[in-house]
Amino acid sequence: DAGVIQSPRHEVTEMGQEVTLRCKPISGHNSLFWYRQTMMRGLELLIYFNNNVPIDDSGMPEDRFSAKMPNASFSTLKIQPSEPRDSAVYFCASSSRTGGTSPLHFGNGTRLTVT
Amino acid sequence: AQSVAQPEDQVNVAEGNPLTVKCTYSVSGNPYLFWYVQYPNRGLQFLLKYITGDNLVKGSYGFEAEFNKSQTSFHLKKPSALVSDSALYFCAWADSSYKLIFGSGTRLLVRP
Predict the structure, then answer these.
(1) End-to-end CA distance of chain A, in Å?
(2) In whole angstroms, how far apart are CA A93 and each of A44, A114, B62, B72?
(3) pLDDT digits over A61-81, tens only?
(4) Do B43 and A101 touch (CB under 8 A)?
(5) Res. A82: pLDDT tops 80
(6) So what's the pLDDT on residue B28?
(7) Distances (CA, A) of B70 to B35, B36, B57, B75, B90
(8) CA–CA separation, B80 and A40 (whole Å)
(9) Cβ distance of B43 and A42 shorter than 8 Å
(10) B25 in contact with A at a CB cutoff of 8 Å?
(11) Which among A39, A66, A34, A75 has a CA at the least distance from the CA of B99?
(12) Which residue of A has its CA nearest to B100?
């Protein structure tokens, strides 16, 4: 079991550029979550999917953020255009949702710096 | 608003001593409560959860937590701390749609 795989680990970009973060969940898991971690706001849930369908995107900050899950083994989080305040660590997590209370398995995150 | 609170930003303890990381909840109904740990430059790792049943929950790495309904608490405990336990600890709760909402985190520092 390779765990949840996120790429890239680090991303540095200039304000206004498009950023795409990628996530491969654990095989067999049918729920996927995107979180953002900053010192000021802690861990924020951005969006989560169940069976590839977005269930709740109320945490997405604004229209500049979008997320997709075209199949069970891949998800992307896109920021366009990026701004310095988007600098954070972005985590992807997956779970099997057995009974709805299965633990989340987190990737090691993508550290995004927008200059 | 429903939430969990971690009142301490940091907890310091000597190796070998018992440790407690505090969490209180303000959640209606039967709360689903969790503890996760985060090591530097890593994602969060699941430690334990309370769903129902026995109020004392045992988890990974020798950690345990006690669900206390009268005090609305779910404190994380370990009888004997290790230097390697130093990390960031998060309490969390799952809402009715099973979204996991995290507390602000507590940094545990275990000194040799």
Answers:
(1) 36
(2) 13, 23, 24, 28
(3) 889 999 999 999 999 999 999
(4) no
(5) yes
(6) 82
(7) 20, 23, 17, 13, 22
(8) 32
(9) no
(10) no
(11) A34
(12) A45
Ranges under pLDDT 70 in chain B: none
Among residues of chain A, what percentage have pLDDT more than 90? 84
φ, ψ for residue B15 (rounded to 5)? Answer: -55, 135
Q: Which of A41, A55, A104, A108 to mutate to test the interface with B (most CBs of B within 10 A)?
A: A104
Q: Are B44 and B37 in contact (CB under 8 A)?
A: yes
The string of pLDDT tens digits covering residues B70-80 is 999 999 999 99
Q: Between A and B, how many CB-CB pairs are < 8 A?
A: 48
Amino acid at site B19? L
